[in-house]
From TrEMBL:
<feature type="active site">
    <location>
        <position position="95"/>
    </location>
</feature>
<keyword id="KW-0227">DNA damage</keyword>
<protein>
    <recommendedName>
        <fullName>DNA polymerase IV</fullName>
        <ecNumber>2.7.7.7</ecNumber>
    </recommendedName>
</protein>
<feature type="binding site">
    <location>
        <position position="94"/>
    </location>
    <ligand>
        <name>Mg(2+)</name>
    </ligand>
</feature>
<dbReference type="InterPro" id="IPR043502">
    <property type="entry name" value="DNA/RNA_pol_sf"/>
</dbReference>
<dbReference type="InterPro" id="IPR036775">
    <property type="entry name" value="DNA_pol_Y-fam_lit_finger_sf"/>
</dbReference>
<dbReference type="InterPro" id="IPR022880">
    <property type="entry name" value="DNApol_IV"/>
</dbReference>
<feature type="domain" description="UmuC">
    <location>
        <begin position="1"/>
        <end position="176"/>
    </location>
</feature>
<keyword id="KW-0460">Magnesium</keyword>
<dbReference type="InterPro" id="IPR017961">
    <property type="entry name" value="DNA_pol_Y-fam_little_finger"/>
</dbReference>
<dbReference type="InterPro" id="IPR050116">
    <property type="entry name" value="DNA_polymerase-Y"/>
</dbReference>
<dbReference type="InterPro" id="IPR001126">
    <property type="entry name" value="UmuC"/>
</dbReference>
<keyword id="KW-0515">Mutator protein</keyword>
<dbReference type="Pfam" id="PF11799">
    <property type="entry name" value="IMS_C"/>
</dbReference>
<keyword id="KW-0808">Transferase</keyword>
<comment type="similarity">
    <text>Belongs to the DNA polymerase type-Y family.</text>
</comment>
<feature type="site" description="Substrate discrimination">
    <location>
        <position position="5"/>
    </location>
</feature>
Amino acid sequence: MDAFYASIEQRDNPALQGKPVAVGRRAGRGVVAAASYEARVFGVRSALPSHMALERCPELVFVPPRFEVYRAVSAQIHTIFRHYTEVIQPLALDEAYLDVTEQWRAYGSATAVAESIRRDIKQQTGLTASAGVSYNRFLAKLASGQRKPDGLFVISPRQGAAFVADLPVEKFHGVGPATTRRMHALGIHTGADLKTWTVPELRQHFGSSAQFYHDIARGEDHRPVEANRPRKSLGTETTFTHDVVEWDRLAAILKDIVRKLAAGCVQKRIAGRTVTLKLRYAGFHTVTRARSAAFPTVEEGVLLSMALELLRSFFPLDKPVRLLGLTISSLVPYDDGTLPVQMGLFEQTV
């Protein structure tokens, strides 16, 4: 979807149409959750601190997020997807992979399927979507960003390897900023550069990701579209208006985070064994520590005990704290509330 959250706000409030819009909190330490294309012209992007966004675009209009609306529209879009295929792998509320290998002939081509989906989304939601069409996930993802907004781009099997060869590695989906810096230090700047490296050579620098990098440099990606893939984790976090150093204050904030996380687990009918605490210091240095219980749990008291133990391990603090986050993983289905929880029994530190 194109600027999904911001586009919904502009759709629902005509006064915002044509204006630079940011979804997020304007005051304090707010960050931009989404930016309209009018705002992006000024360099406003998601995850940008609000004060920096306003410096770049003083006319920027901030709108508080309405996630219940975004989720409802996302469900509407997925209903459209299912008209065309059941093989759908969601990436986020506004993005998904669709495998139409078995369906495209009924429409003439995979490109025709994508065009039909984009047309249905526009007619039923009033929003625009961009699509990438290709023969694997990696290239389809790259293609989806080539003609935004409201566009479609196709990378055929004949074009795949050449398309990747000319592309800077920082544009590769799956190659983040840290990996980009390591590749640049090794003289790898484009797909063509990456293609000259063997798997053993790449493994020395990139470990288990070596085979993936070797393949994508050749336009290859053998990962299937995974329909209904299981959730791996669930988390929540809070950014503070002012830096915090006091144990009592951080513990109180963490208790509220645990309450929200436990409620989310119950709502989604999942339980987990591993709790990971994320702590971000003033200056944006981020550290994480994890703890695993002997059994999966959704009990708020157990989760809080584990989370507080992790928080204590950071004391005395190196610096004031600006963000706390908590994630639960090693998930299992939670059906009847009879999980074998044993409070206080932690089997390992990760």
